[in-house]
Amino acid sequence: MPTASVAALHESVTVSGSVVVAVSPEGAVAATVRAVRESVVPVALADVRHTNGGDPDLIAALQAEGLVDGLVAYGGWNTAGNTIGSVVAAAVATVVGDREHTLDRTAARRLLLHRLTEDYGYQAVVRAAGPDAAAARERLQPILHGFDPDWTIEDVTFPWNRSFEIDFTLVRRGGPHDR
Question: What's this model's pTM, rounded to 2 decimal places?
Fold first, then answer.
């Protein structure tokens, strides 16, 4: 498997198996879309342009180019450290699982969709409306369907009784639940 470079705020570090792109504000969207499009190895995206939510411009550009499905991991939540750590962990699990033929592709897909829906959809788009589970589900469902229409959102909760954290279950039509 080829070794990939990691572009993090215009510095390169080598990581075996996937690309993690931590975006910087100036020219971030175009540079990130270009890096994802041109990558010859799996891509994991740490979206750290904004604290506490994915970058709507970046997600829109990736969707317009049809590049979201090519990601092995995504994160854009809380701090840059939490985002990068989560993305690296998901990328390593996915790449190693694939290499060792132990990858649960449904679980990997569910994790990617959950992060996209929560980190971008909820944190960057829906959260300002406040902690209303029914309203959040109603607003998140079309966002999730924009990534993959075969999945649905159930059991929306706010585990800490505040709008900052949300939890929900992703269910694939004809597939198992995720908690």
Answer: 0.84
